[in-house]
Amino acid sequence: MEEDGSESYTEGESLGGFIVNGLDVYDGGDVSASKDVSDDNVNFDEVLSTIQRSRGLTVKWEFEVDMLAAFGKDLELCMKAICALYRQQTSEEKVSKGTFYSNQRGFSQCDAFRGTTLAEFLTDGDPQGEVKKSVKELQEHDRKGPELCRTLATHHSKQLYAI
């Protein structure tokens, strides 16, 4: 809560809009209007659902296993996951294609070179970029690329779910 009584939220990292982490729900409206309703009468699931619908936000997965199932069905989602992991790497790690810090962010040491190389291709070298390549382009670039995307996304699923 800020000094003027308004609330400030930030939206977390996303996988191309598939995951919403945090609630960026304050729209500048009157925060005091909700004070008239007692906590006993509030159904948070209903309130969140209403807010998310009005803002066009969706929560794709209730559990990590749901996200893993989606990885198995959607290669483009796996490609977005690789880019999300890449954005978590420090600039030094991106340049060296390695992992220097045990911060549980980005690729693990054993996946850093392959993941960074793959992410650089998918983003056309933009260190903060989104996926710019299609599944077909990935397959043409590296016939094992799609499977690597799935493997890395699955391996880093705990981190991706947290993102």
Record field, number of beta strands = 0
Rg, alpha carbons: 19 Å
Derived from helix and strand composition plus strand pairing, the structural class reads mainly alpha
Q: In this structure, how is the largest beta sheet organized?
A: none
Distance between the termini: 23 Å
> Uncertain regions: pLDDT < 50 for 5+ in a row?
1-12, 19-39, 54-58
- Portion of residues within helices: 40-55%
Mean pLDDT: 74
Q: Write the H/E string, N to C.
A: HHHHHHHH
Strand proportion, as a percent range, falls in under 5%
Total domain modules: 2
- The count of helical stretches stands at 8
Bulk shape: globular
Features:
0% strand, 2 domains, 163 residues, mainly alpha, disordered N terminus
Question: How would you sum up this structure, described in words?
Answer:
With 163 residues, the protein is mainly α. The protein has 2 domains: 1-60, no CATH class; 64-162, no CATH class. It contains 8 helices and no strands. It has helices at residues 44-55, 64-73, 75-88, 91-96, 112-122, 135-141, 145-155, 157-162. Helix 3 crosses helix 5 (112-122). The longest helix is centred in the middle third of the chain and has 14 residues, at 75-88.
Describe how the helices and strands are arranged.
Blueprint: H1 44-55, H2 64-73, H3 75-88, H4 91-96, H5 112-122, H6 135-141, H7 145-155, H8 157-162
Helix pairs in contact: 3-5, 3-7
Short structural summary:
The chain is mostly helical and 163 residues long. The chain contains eight helices and no strands.
